[in-house]
Amino acid sequence: MSAVKFVDHGYADPDPAISAGSGPFRHYELDAAFHDELFHEDGTPRARARRLGAALSRIPPEDLERLQDGVYRRFVHEGITFTVLGVEDVSEQIIPIDCVPRLITAEEWDHIERGLKQRLTALNLFLRDVYHGGKSLRDGIVPADLVLGCPQYRIEMRGMKVPHDVYVAVCGTDIVRAGDTFAVLEDNLRVPSGVSYMLACRTAMKWAFPYLYRAYGVREVADYPERLYSTIASLSLTGEAPRMAVLTPGRYNSAYYEHAFLAGEMGVDLVEGRDLVVHDATLYARTAAGLRRIDVLYRRIDDDFLDPVAFREDSVLGAAGLFHAYRAGNLVLANAPGTGVADDKALYAYVPRLIRYFLDEEPILANVETHLCREPEGLAYTLDNLEELVVKEVGGSGGYGMLVGPHATKAERKAFAEHLRSDPANYISQPVLPLSRAGCFVDGRLEPRHVDLRPFVLQGREEQHVVPGGLCRVALRKGSLVVNSSQGGGCKDLWILRE
Amino acid sequence: MLARMAANFYWLGRYAERTENTARLLEYQLTRLVDTDADELALGWRVVYRALSQSPPQAPADVDEAEAFLIADAYTLTGGLVEDTTNPASMISCWGMARENAREIRPRLPLPVWVCLNQGFLWLQETEFADAWGEGPGALVSQAIDRLRLLAGVVDANMARDDAWRFLELGRYVERLQQQVLLLDMWDRIARPDGDGLVLSWADLLRVCGAFEPYRRDRSLTLRRGSVLGFLMRNPEVSRSVRYATDRIGSALRGIDPAGGRPPLAPPHRMVLRMAAALELDPGGGEPSPDGAPAEVFESLTRDSRTLHGLIQASYVDYPVTAGLPS
């Protein structure tokens, strides 16, 4: 690879002459059906994009190729990978990264930030209510059977005092932009992942576009590990300097890099179940110098696997007695067990109601239109409009277990309809979202691609913090709306502008 | 530090050392391809393979080991030790295992160390062995040695001298101890230069161990078996002497477990002291007698070093839970 020369291509000098469909953007085709974040419908650049567009137009394509390649190699050499379990082997893959940053203005971000804080506050109150009397269920805000029948509802948490009533300390909320508005697509309240890619993308972009980054005045995200540590530590019941660890399923887990990265950045141990021992309702880690107590565990494994005594008895990923230590008040878990009941895709439809009920406020961020197949009218609507809808399993993730109606064959839709009829409560449907498009550098060309966004919210004992950035996923295949890395998606850096 | 991570650092040290040892022996043998006759080359391969605990190449039943190495070609013999992923002792396998251990300890491993180790592994994995051979038989191995030395330097420059470092050192020198004893044993047993017939020189043994110049300065240009073996066994300043390895193991153990170094001695400390004493009190004194066979000494050291490995595991990694509870 040739060395990349850092040349200031006049980044500080916005050039209004650029336009979609001409010059370096000659392959950039606008589509009126989708909001484009770089250009207006008439092809002129949006105000926020003038500087970026000017910079991209001034960098020779071969330099952009080298930058893209340089970023890719950084990821390879630093081992910024996700693990893919195949039938016969395990492989490490690099998450594709696009070298063109996505831009969000300060005004837009302020709206998102307020909405996210409001949403997480309501969800934490809801979780406390679910496990302490269920007033919201009795009041009919959410159907009780939806909650009590949810596989993620943990009866073991009923009546249990969670430290400082913070059930969800780390939240990753998927947000999409359709037109000029942002909407929440999904809440991830169990073990949201992707924050390490956000940080890796940022480091790479600072390396690739140092002058542009400086000229734009981008809000910083590098303090995330420090904030994560102080957030989780604030939940401790033992004082100022709790002994903390990150619990990982191990290196075969797809997010292992992230677990190792966060533990390293926070300066805490990365433990696996085999490192842990519970004695006298206290959790210990096996160190080379004997057993050492753990006060706070940032767990990155699902509830089911935390403790073979309390949950799945065949689990070898957790530690026997861990939940007992938690119940005894000798251990803090972040996030608390049982939070999955609030990020179920069916429960999602009720979040605006929960916000009104618990906070007496109107939701700042809207939901995407959602039809619950558990309700007869929702099922009928879904079956009647299968060609135009996306149907998802309520407990599914990663783009699996879903049907994208417009892209499915008649036979696939027919087979899926059978699943719907036989187990309607397991599905919801939503319209195909016209995800906004951002500029990307793909195969040597600047072209638009669909994007979404996962910002991360931290809820400590007293403070809430929304990271000014997030994991921006991009559907790198032309025309595709699927952003999942397991299905051809990649990521790009998200720049939240100060002004 | 976590016991599992201590074990990972220990094994990272062992696998990195093992890779480097294989590369060094191969470099020695491959440089001889140019001007050494076939019989002597075969003898060299035999020593290298035995010193690496490798089985001889497959040959018809009526062919003995010495002849099997005569029949086999250098390309195949080298490939088996470099690129053969089915051979757990090949360089690519050992480098890969070092990397897998490093992945487990990434939160404790400085990024430059990981990047250097990872880049080296990816380089070896992506290198076409046949193409590299075309550039010269020893080219690939020489580059590998350069990368391993770079790794050692990056480790030295970036790691704090804490328990992680000590366990890495422990693994490195337990491995070196075992490999070095085996090499001396095989050289003395198979290729004894003072014996009849084909021989490998004592000077070559010193060069393989990076000890030729120190020996020349410390002793003389006259190379005798007892003097060379004694030097490589007991010299405290040569980094590939057995004594040097036991000293470093003792030093790492004293850092990891200071209390274990005082009476009552912890089992690993006791074993290292016993090995050090055996080296000092070897009846051969400074130099084994010319005709004496130090095979018993080598066997004893091999046995003790294996026991030491087991004691380290049992004391710091796999100890019973009840023994680890805070008092």
What does this 3D model show about the protein?
The complex is a heterodimer of chains A (499) and B (327). Chain A has 499 residues and is α+β, with helices and mostly antiparallel strands. Chain A is globular, with a radius of gyration of 23 Å. Chain A contains 14 helices and 23 strands. By secondary structure, chain B is an all-alpha fold. Helix content of chain B is 68%, strand content 0%. Chain B has 16 helices and no strands. Chain B has helices at 3-31, 38-51, 65-71, 74-82, 91-104, 111-126, 129-134, 139-158, 163-190, 202-208, 212-218, 225-234, 242-256, 267-280, 295-316, 321-324. The longest helix of chain B has 29 residues, at 3-31. The radius of gyration of chain B is 20 Å and the shape is globular. The A-B interface holds A 76-79, 246, 251, 256-257, 260-261, 263-264, 268-272, 274-275, 277, 279, 284-293 and B 1-6, 100, 103-104, 106-108, 111, 114-115, 118-119, 122, 163, 167, 256-257, 316-317, 319, 321, 323-326.
Order of helices and strands of chain B: HHHHHHHHHHHHHHHH
What structural category characterises the helix and strand content of chain B?
mainly alpha
Radius of gyration of chain A: 23 Å
* Low-pLDDT stretches of chain B: none
Remind me, CATH topology of the domain at 369-431 in chain A? Dna Ligase, domain 1
Low-confidence regions of chain A? none
Shape type of chain A: globular
Number of helices of chain B: 16
What's the main sheet of chain B like? none
Please state how the strands of the largest beta sheet of chain A are arranged side by side.
Answer: 13-5-4-20-21
Termini of chain A, distance in Å? Answer: 37 Å
For the sheet with most strands of chain A, the description reads:
5 strands, mixed
- Percentage of β-strand residues of chain B: under 5%
Based on DSSP secondary structure assignment, what is the total number of beta strands of chain B?
Answer: 0
